[in-house]
């Protein structure tokens, strides 16, 4: 549990124990409990040990600050901005229930508020019953057009039509919702690769982004999801949802460090405005917050 890991971290940094090998070992274990993953936790702790040898911190608080800096530096972030005069396609991906549909709606509103014209939501989750309706409700609430086909239809065709609807306007942004899928289901992965080919062929060069939605509460399994989706289609950025929970999303550090995928958005609630661009400094600070 996140809260347990936070209290262990707090105990370690408020202890009187010397900052020695045992301290770094304990720290590494605690970071693993915080979903950071063994390899990344080890590397971060090693880096901390190295810096402590040079800086010679005089207090545990100083050691903690150095660690916070290291975490901040290790996190790649990206501010995804649609190209103003291009046909942009952002494809939302992820396993079941991570927050793809909600995050797609949030992003549509987010970009519209920031001046992107011609935003279309594409209901490319044709698999789950009620998924189309769910996206249409968001579209109605926000006053944003939704392009959809029938339940059970070809999701790649939905993305194709949504892109065509924009092509007549010359530019804009399609945000495509997709069905939650397990990365080990071959047929669904092939379907995803087809959507990927269509989206890549319809978007302007450099304006197609694949955004993986990871749920903060998933723990280290989120890293395996990222690895599998990255292998299947290549991921450009992560949307970390449910950061309003007690989970800290520690998996993001290994996703960034080991897979090189940057964090784009933080979702922090169920309303449309609960979205922000990721900020490494704030994320690292929040990671320690109780
Ligand atoms: N607290 C919180 N809840 C969220 C957030 N994002 C999504 N949710 C909730 O998580 C649940 C699942 O969200 P969806 O957007 O339907 O997830 P999905 O990935 O589209 O799900 P499937 O289509 O079934 O794969 C819903 O109850 C959302 O309201 C968030 O940032 N914070
Ligand atoms: Mg959905």
3D architecture notes:
50% of the residues lie in helices and 15% in strands. Strands 3-2-4-1-5-6-7-8 form an eight-stranded mixed sheet, with helices on both faces. α1 runs antiparallel to α2 (21-33), α7 (155-167) packs parallel to α8 and α9 (221-233) runs parallel beside α10 (251-259). With 290 residues, it is of the alpha/beta class. It has helices at residues 2-14, 21-33, 38-55, 60-74, 100-113, 131-142, 155-167, 186-202, 221-233, 251-259, 280-288; strands at residues 87-93, 119-124, 145-147, 172-178, 208-215, 237-241, 263-267, 275-277. The chain is built from eleven helices and eight strands. The chain has two domains: 2-74, Four Helix Bundle (Hemerythrin (Met), subunit A) (Up-down Bundle); 87-288, Rossmann fold (3-Layer(aba) Sandwich). The longest helix is centred in the N-terminal third of the chain and has 18 residues, at 38-55. Bound molecules: guanosine-5'-triphosphate and magnesium ion. The site of magnesium ion (MG) has 5 residues, from α5.
């Amino acid at each position: 549990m996140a809260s347990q890991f936070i209290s262990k971290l707090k105990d370690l940094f408020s202890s009187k124990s010397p900052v020695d090998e045992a301290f770094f070992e304990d720290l590494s274990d605690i970071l693993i409990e915080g979903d950071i993953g063994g390899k990344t936790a080890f590397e971060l702790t090693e880096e901390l040990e190295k810096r402590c040898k040079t800086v010679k911190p005089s207090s545990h608080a100083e050691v903690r600050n150095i660690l916070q800096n290291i975490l901040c530096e290790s996190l790649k972030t990206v501010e995804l901005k649609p190209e103003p005069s291009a046909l942009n396609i952002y494809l939302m991906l992820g396993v079941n229930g991570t927050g793809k549909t909600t995050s797609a709606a949030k992003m549509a509103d987010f970009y519209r508020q920031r001046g992107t014209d011609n935003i279309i939501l594409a209901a490319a989750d044709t698999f789950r019953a009620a998924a189309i309706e769910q996206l249409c409700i968001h579209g109605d609430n926000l006053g944003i057009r939704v392009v959809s086909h029938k339940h059970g239809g070809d999701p790649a065709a939905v993305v194709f039509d949504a892109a065509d609807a924009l092509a007549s306007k010359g530019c804009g942004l399609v945000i495509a919702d997709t069905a939650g899928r397990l990365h080990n289901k071959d047929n669904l992965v092939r379907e995803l690769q087809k959507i990927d080919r269509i989206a890549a062929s319809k978007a302007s060069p450099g304006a197609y982004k694949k955004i993986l939605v990871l749920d903060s509460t998933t723990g280290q399994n989120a890293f395996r999801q990222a690895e599998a989706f990255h292998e299947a289609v290549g991921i450009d950025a992560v949307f970390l949802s449910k950061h309003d929970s007690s989970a800290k999303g520690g998996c993001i550090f290994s996703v960034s460090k080991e897979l090189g995928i940057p964090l784009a958005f933080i979702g922090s609630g169920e309303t449309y405005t609960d979205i922000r661009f990721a900020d490494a400094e704030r994320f690292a600070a929040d990671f320690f917050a109780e």
